[in-house]
Amino acid sequence: MITRLQVRNFKSLRDVDLPLGPLNVLVGPNMGGKSNILDLLTFLFECWFPKLGTWGPVNALANRQGIEEVLWKGGQDKLLSISIEFVEPIRADRKFIYEIEVVAGVGGYVNIQKETLILQEDGKEQALIVRHNDGTWLVNANGDRLVAVLAQRSAMEIAPPNWDGYPLKFFAQNWRFYQFVPGLMKQANQMTAGSVLDPHGGNLSAWLMWLQTRSPEAFGRIAEAARDMFPEIRDLLTWPTQQGTVYLASQERDLLRPVSLFQMSDGELVFIAFLSLIDAPDDLGGTLFCIEEPENHLHPKLFETLVALLRQVRQEVADRGVPPSQIILTTQSPYVIDQMNLDEILWVEKKKGETKVVRPSDKANLRKLVEDEVLGLGDLMFTGALGEE
Questions:
Q1: Rounded distance, CA 108 to CA 252, Å?
Q2: Which residues partner with 111 through β-bridges?
Q3: 127-180 pLDDT, tens per residue?
Q4: CA 334 to CA 380: how far, in whole Å?
Q5: pTM
Q6: Count of H-run helices and E-run strands, the chain
Q7: In what order do the strands lie in the sheet with 288-292?
Q8: Residue 83 has what pLDDT?
Q9: β 175-178/135-139 pair status
Q10: What would the pLDDT profile of 302-346 be if each residue is shown by its tens digit?
Q11: In this predicted structure, what is the pLDDT of residue 388?
């Protein structure tokens, strides 16, 4: 689990120190920087897992129109710095501290000025990414060199499984980023495109068929929850076609023929997509879910149901001894906030061009108001009390 995220000069995040827990809800006004926090994690993912034939940091910056577009625009500092602290879910005594510094050169040239990974264990620290006169190396805790790192590449790109720092990369390879777009969800998919749900849900039909094949029990739970919330639905179907594609359909009680996903409601599809993430088996899930405005297209009652199911499943997973996924949400909805605990909320807003983050639970007066049920969290959001320092 990521326990701390520090960043300097990434978009509006001029100087942010962000503590994180198992469930984190980023709340605040438009243009505050909530999406930039999620994009920072997307940026790290792209640095560590570049597309074939590309180099991580260079490609991740190019995806954002170059380093000059990424750097905070309120000053002349050319240094982008990111630090992430990670604790192994099954080894809480082991902490990894990763840091990377990227400098903008002349003509958009990018230089990795610093990249380190420190393992803290049993009161000791051991560097696992080390820079020597002959370059940067991945090393194990015993000091053995494993792999040399080429300039302009991240050491995390080439991390082998026998490296002592590999648990961090293993955790990161299953990060998931979502912002569902119903227009993209309403399409047939190739049957082979379903092992992971796409960020915008564009392969929903193939993903559900994959789930139905790999775990009929999980698909059954999804269909049951859909029936509970949409009384018209009798069943969910994944229909293969002669063209090698598949599409989702629902059988409604008062209709003779199924309704294909092309005609299903936006909220119905988004609800089913979230159900599929919640009910997916452990081996098909993610370690971190970053979700932009999950309330979009959903009736408040549907979202309330999703949160209740999420908490129930997370408890069941923990009871099996499996670490639940870490979650980071962005929202501006009082309905969403009212489903959360004060400890799970982070207030994000921009002041003088830079993003500031406040943890409302640190304020004794707010905690008292919530505990005494004087005001709900949604009401406190409207008053601005969540963000006042």
A1: 56
A2: 103
A3: 999 987 778 899 999 989 999 998 789 999 998 999 999 999 999 999 999 999
A4: 9
A5: 0.94
A6: 12, 18
A7: 175-178, 288-292, 326-331, 23-27, 345-351, 354-358
A8: 98
A9: unpaired
A10: 999 999 999 999 999 999 988 899 999 999 999 999 999 999 999
A11: 63
CB proximity list for 310: less than 8 A, separation 6 or greater: 278, 327
Give the residue from 55, 227, 31, 87 showing the smallest Cα distance to 158. 55
Query: Domain residue spans in the chain?
Result: 2-174, 176-285+288-324
The two three-digit tokens of residue 75, written as one number: 């000053």
Q: Given this model, what pLDDT does residue 389 score? A: 58
DSSP of 245-282, one letter per residue? EEEEEEEETT-SSPEETTTS-HHHHHHHHHHHHHHS-G
Phi, psi of 199 (to 5 degrees): -55, -35
Query: Any idea what DSSP says for residue 133?
Result: T
Q: Which two tokens stand for residue 3?
A: 């326990």
CATH label, 2-174, candidates 1.10.3470, 3.40.50, 3.60.21, 3.40.30? 3.40.50
Question: Which residues on adjacent β-strands are paired with residue 250?
Answer: 236, 259
Which residues have C-beta within 8 Å of that of residue 135, sequence separation ≥ 6?
148, 149, 151
The residues of the chain scoring below 70 in pLDDT are 388-389
Which two tokens mark 28?
């605040």
**DSSP alpha helix (H) spans, the chain:** 34-48, 56-62, 67-70, 166-172, 182-185, 204-214, 216-229, 266-279, 300-319, 334-337, 364-371, 377-383
CA distance 178 to 196: 12
224 residue type, one letter: E
Q: What is the CA radius of gyration of the chain?
A: 22
